[in-house]
Amino acid sequence: MELSSLYHKAGSNYAYAYSNKMLHIKLQTKVNDVQAVMLVFGDPYDYREQKEAGEESGWNWFVQNRRMEHIGTDGLHDYWLIEVEPYRRRLRYAFYLESEGLHYLYGERKTYQVTGTTDPRLSDQKNFFAFPYINSVDVYSAPDWVKDTIWYQIFPERFANGDMTNDPKDTKNWNDPLSSSRDHYGGDLQGVIEQLDYLEELGVNGIYFTPIFHSHSNHKYDTIDYLKVDPHFGDKEKLKELVKKAHDRGIRVMLDIVFNHCGFFFAQFQDVLEHGEASAYKDWFHIHEFPVYDKANELRSSKELHFDTFAFTPSMPKLNTENPQMKEYLLNIIRYWSDEAAIDGWRLDVANEVDHQFWREFRKVAKERNPEVYIVGEVWHDANPWLGGDQFDAVMNYPLNDAVLGFFAKQELNCEEFAQEVSHANFQYPKHVNDHMYNLIDSHDTPRFLHQAGENKELLKLAYVFMMTHTGSPSIYYGNEVGMTGGQDPDCRRPMRWNTEDQDIELMAFMKQLIRIRKDHDVLRDRGEFRFHKSEHSDILVYQRSTEKEVYLILINRSNQSHRIRLPEEIHNRSFLDLWRNEQITTEDHMELKPYGFILLKNM
After folding, report:
1. Catalytic option among 349, 361, 393, 539
2. 64 with 86: CB under 8 angstroms?
3. Is 520 a catalytic residue?
4. DSSP string covering 432-481, please?
5. What are the pLDDT digits (tens) for 503-552?
6. Which of 496, 523, 550 is the last residue of a domain?
7. C-alpha to C-alpha distance for 92 and 107, rounded to whole angstroms
8. Are residues 482 and 547 in the same domain?
9. Where in 119-197 does DSSP place strands (E)?
10. Which structural domain range is residue 597 located in?
11. Is residue 74 flagged as an active site residue?
């Protein structure tokens, strides 16, 4: 057995409190190296009197053995999981492994070969991992409504123009092509209000807005005033109207907030530019030397700036969130909008570059104002440091996005590689975190999926079939449902197509039906376990969502050829409901999948 591949860490995403009474414990082993794993565990204070025949009685630590479940592989490692409800909410544990007829004990300090389950070293508590106590306040908690939410991301400047009186002077005709990243088309909050019926009919029940606060640019990630809705979008009363009318339709509203940096014209930064070291706000930013900026020079990207910025963008000075006055200023913004507009969620831009302590205090303030608020960080890499229950509820799931693009759009991955990448993304986080992830296939920061798929709408459909049947909270970037395309920013931010002759009506109907199926079947959302089945064809995905009583089998063919696929043996000759066609079928050992076809089955 490859001992160096064994990995477990207590108090991490490998051992966490799933609830106030339940622990989830995971183990990593080398792929195909271990045949079985048992958890050896007990309460650290549970000593019981035991007496062997012909011997005096003695007190020994009481331990139990339970088999762990093999939950999948990422190609390099196998992963094992067990749920344990410890006595009195505390646990000491180790792993008993079988490999090629030999047995090993993997503990916190040592790993060694043992003779069997009666080996005395299996009760050597000093070598056992510890979960000292499940304290309720430490248990990850996120709003349940998120698991039932399908998000619709709106870039406000490009969604709908409902009020032409607030248009910028250089506003283009809605149907004119994009020519610059600085173009304006006049989209605003009134336009969104007028299209709420459209969103309700589509079936989405959450809106994620990119920033709406007063800014110099059309994208609004360079905030001038956090307490003011951008005049080109409307005002505070218009935002409140939008939120209320969305809530009346059962649609939640999540706003994008930028606390990593501000805009160049942020009043406090302008004060630093004017007064230099004498400014009361100089410690609100990361200033290296004075003068901060020579106004005689043209504002341009430079790596020799006298202040820290987002990337090397002079128009976005980085905020010093460790400064007490700066911190309180930002937290008051959350208090203000939570009270004024009943915001349901916050998406946090460039969240990984802000200090953890700030986000802990942010969470406390946001949850005090609204215990059911959803907090999502923009983190493109491993986000475990932010997902321990004290900072974010979730992050934007870019690792899953990469896998979906690789398999469906670019077809760089075969089905086995795709399953491994998705499994790796899922194994990376605790289960209850995965249930709340913000899952996406594209956004304002990426080329649109359709562009990356060579304009193949059948692949777009299949990608959404997967996303709508995968764990987590799926999202739709505005216009994808009618066939919008576009390359890298700014091309991915084209104005929404509202003329029906420019919309793919068949694609829209497809999306409505797919959303309805997800909403009608809670196992497809968050009540069912997710598991890949082995597929005999590189283009065919086979996986299931299941509970003890219900099984949903999903088959997807991403190729332009028909394929006959062998079904998992446990579902041969069984009655299923075909969810897409709403008809009963009886399975055989094989099923035929048409080009770009898919099958959604539910056991009868």
Report:
1. 349
2. no
3. no
4. HHHTT-EE-S--TTS--HHHHTTT-HHHHHHHHHHHHTSSSEEEEETTGG
5. 999 999 999 999 999 999 999 988 889 999 998 899 999 999 999 899 99
6. 523
7. 10
8. no
9. 129-131, 151-154
10. 529-603
11. no
